[in-house]
Amino acid sequence: MFVKKKFIQTLTLLITLLFIQGCAVLTQSQVDAVKSFATAANNYSDLPSTVINIHADSKLEESYFISANLSDPEHIVETMDHKATNYLKIKKQAEAADSALSVIDAYVKLLQKLSSDDFTNQLNEESVALGTAIDAGIARYNSNANDKKVNSFGSTSAGIVRGIGGIRIKQKQTEALKKAVNSAEPVMQTMTKAIVALMDSYIGNNESEGLAEGAVKSLKAAYKQSLERGKPSNSVKNEKNITQLLIKANSIKSLAEKNKVAIKTFQEAHTKLHANMQKKEDLKEGIEEINVLYGEVRAAQKLKNDLDKDK
Amino acid sequence: MANTERLKVIQLVREAKKSVGSARFDPSIRSSDRQILEKLYIKLDDIEDNLILGEIAEKVALLTKASKDLESINKKIKEDIKELEGIAELVGKVANGVKILVNLAETGAELLT
Lengths: 311, 113
Known about the structure:
The complex is a heterodimer. Chain A is mainly α. Helix content of chain A is about 85%, strand content about 0%. The two termini of chain A are about 15 Å apart. Chain B has one domain (about 5-110).
């Protein structure tokens, strides 16, 4: 009874000290903000490369019509060679965009890991191992001791380690999460700007046509010139084929527009997360932090009780 | 080159390419002129492709540069995660140390008896 009382007193004192020092701990609303950000980021990364890839495919289709319209064999070979190289270069840009955006995926996963319960769960297991080891040692000592027996204190030790360690982990998680999100916010803004600029190149503006519209027009022009030259002649099969190509080329602009909206939503989610990570002094935040600390003490107490029950 | 400027040039080149492309098939022009027009058409197509590639590459380069900064942030997060795992691991090491001490004490006691 005395040990249990002492255990609670120690933890209460510890928590009070931590509060006086103003050490913040990871709160549920911060974990939720990470989750919201992760949802916004989910499956985003392959969108910009899809736009570039469809554009590359459309340019390749156009190149078949262009080559078919040429009369000089040297020009045909030269053009096909140039078009193949250009196609691969555009595809390489799509790969580079993919590779750059895969870093966002990794960032999201790391934030999720950083805000998870994995660390306190691991601490729980190790604390149990410590408590059991201490009790085993005491039991061995008692079995050899002739006169004065020692009361077992493994569960209390484990509980204290779990309590202090849990609070330390929550603090460290908050510090690390804040540091990560604060440094990532300007980088995320730069990445968003780069993606928006890339998508704007496809969408265009009031002053100039975008690459998407250009791809559709070029494809139409190349096909029209083919018809003028009689290669290929118009037939149901050819019309069907060109219609499908135009549908694909037309999708570039709408996909780029969706992409622009998606990256902006994604950036907003990160900015919200960033705002959430800033130190708040309001009552709600204070209560939330108390709840987290109380949760750690309860986890420590539960662990102690469980170990006591097993004896 | 600014985004709008390059897009404007691409549009102009595309329109020129379209005109030259159609002119090639004008029945009134001589065969030698047709060859010159075809050469010009290929050249314009080449310029258009290079400008388009430049437009995409410029934006992707910005993206790649920013992603390098995020990559170094990820590296730091991994270090922090390792440190967090270290807190629990330390407790595990202490538990193992206690076990070893208990075993040693027991072996010592057995040797003395």
